[in-house]
């Protein structure tokens, strides 16, 4: 455990930067919440409830309220060394919960895309479990930032033990690795139908939002990884605030955008699969009756061309879990192969 005491100027400067970053990040989150609240009421509160909806609400409200306590800890003069050393467990736990809830929401989407390829889903689940265990262990090595008594700073913030900075950086790059796997699997599933120009609104939204999310998180996480290794103790975790709140805000937007896209699919009259309403209901079945023959030619000479029915793989039953899009969703046939469109998006 490092006990290096910063100079008065450095201590005040680091405290101010931490406060600026914390309040700026929280402002972004609050603005995003206000901007998307009407969509939340429409698609979450008035929509069908399911696992992703409950995870969405946990992500949407638990993290912001928990972060308000962190902001109080940055400003309040009541902290002493002993009290702060206990509080930092709360700060670290809230950060860990926020990141892992988002990871679980992504896992459910991978399950929707690859539900009949359990080894892929299992691999992603294992990576998330490893990330959770690593973050839990690092939480036991958390400590309070040391302040110079002459500076008058009493802020309480957590950093990982500087003696394990290399290992502590895994709190940043492990989520980035997980996100990289998620975006790679999403690209693999969505690009073929998009190239063929027959992708559904949901598929396009999955790709677009996934790339935007990954680009932003990659930039922030790269900076956080470098700072955990090389920055002074008082600044090591400063970007973790931005990473957490940006992840929460973007995941909320992705969920709402997917629900909006699912509503557009509902308005598309190409395919009408009917899904069971129960979480533990039987497997949903999607019927594709052979279309009528097409008549080609003039009134004097007509040729009847029979339409080939869909192959059995396209007509396979889709495993059903609670839907958080809509009870009925219209999806192009090319998007159905090997996918579970009754899954929460």
UniProtKB/TrEMBL annotation:
Disordered: annotated span: 291-312
The keyword Transmembrane belongs to this UniProt entry's keyword annotation: yes
Q: Where is the composition biased (Low complexity)?
A: 298-307
Residues spanning the membrane: 52-74, 94-112, 119-139, 172-191, 211-232, 238-256
Give the source lineage, highest ranks first.
Eukaryota, Fungi, Dikarya, Basidiomycota, Agaricomycotina
Looking up Pfam families in the UniProt record yields: DUF6533
Which branch of life, at top level? Eukaryota
Is Hydrolase a UniProt keyword of this protein?
Answer: no
Q: What are the residue boundaries of the DUF6533 domain, all occurrences included?
A: 20-64
Name the keywords, alphabetized.
Membrane, Transmembrane, Transmembrane helix
Coiled-coil regions, chain positions:
none
What InterPro entries does UniProt report for this protein, alphabetically? DUF6533 (IPR045340)
Q: What is this protein called?
A: DUF6533 domain-containing protein
């Amino acid at each position: 455990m490092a006990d290096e005491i910063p100079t008065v100027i450095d201590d005040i400067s680091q405290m101010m930067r931490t406060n600026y970053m914390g309040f700026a990040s929280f402002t972004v989150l609050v603005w995003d919440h206000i901007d998307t609240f009407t969509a939340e009421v429409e698609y979450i509160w008035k929509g069908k409830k399911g696992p992703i909806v409950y995870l969405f609400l946990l992500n949407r409200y638990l993290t912001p309220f928990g972060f308000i306590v962190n902001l109080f800890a940055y400003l309040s003069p009541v902290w002493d060394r002993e009290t702060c050393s206990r509080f930092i467990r709360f700060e670290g736990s809230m950060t860990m919960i926020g990141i892992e809830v988002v990871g679980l929401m992504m896992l459910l989407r991978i399950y929707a895309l690859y539900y009949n390829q359990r080894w892929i889903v299992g691999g992603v689940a294992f990576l998330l479990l490893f990330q959770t265990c690593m973050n839990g262990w690092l939480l036991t090595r958390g400590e309070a930032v040391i302040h110079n008594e002459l500076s008058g700073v009493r802020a309480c913030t957590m950093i990982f033990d500087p003696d394990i900075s290399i290992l502590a950086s895994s709190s940043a790059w492990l989520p980035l690795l997980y996100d990289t796997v998620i975006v790679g699997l999403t690209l693999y599933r969505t690009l073929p139908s998009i190239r063929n120009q027959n992708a559904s609104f949901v598929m396009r939204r999955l790709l677009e939002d996934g790339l935007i999310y990954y680009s932003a998180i990659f930039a922030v996480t790269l900076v956080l990884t470098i700072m955990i290794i090389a920055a002074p103790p008082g600044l090591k975790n400063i970007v973790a605030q931005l990473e957490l709140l940006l992840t929460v805000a973007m995941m909320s937007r992705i969920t709402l955008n997917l629900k909006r896209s699912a509503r557009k699919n509902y308005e598309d009259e190409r395919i009408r699969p009917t899904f069971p309403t129960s979480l533990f209901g039987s497997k949903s079945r999607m019927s594709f009756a052979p279309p009528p023959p097409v008549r080609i030619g003039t009134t004097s000479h007509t040729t009847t061309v029979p339409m080939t029915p869909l192959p059995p793989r396209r007509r396979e039953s889709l495993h059903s879990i609670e839907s958080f899009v809509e009870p009925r969703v219209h999806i192009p046939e090319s998007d159905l192969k090997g996918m579970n469109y009754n899954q929460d998006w």
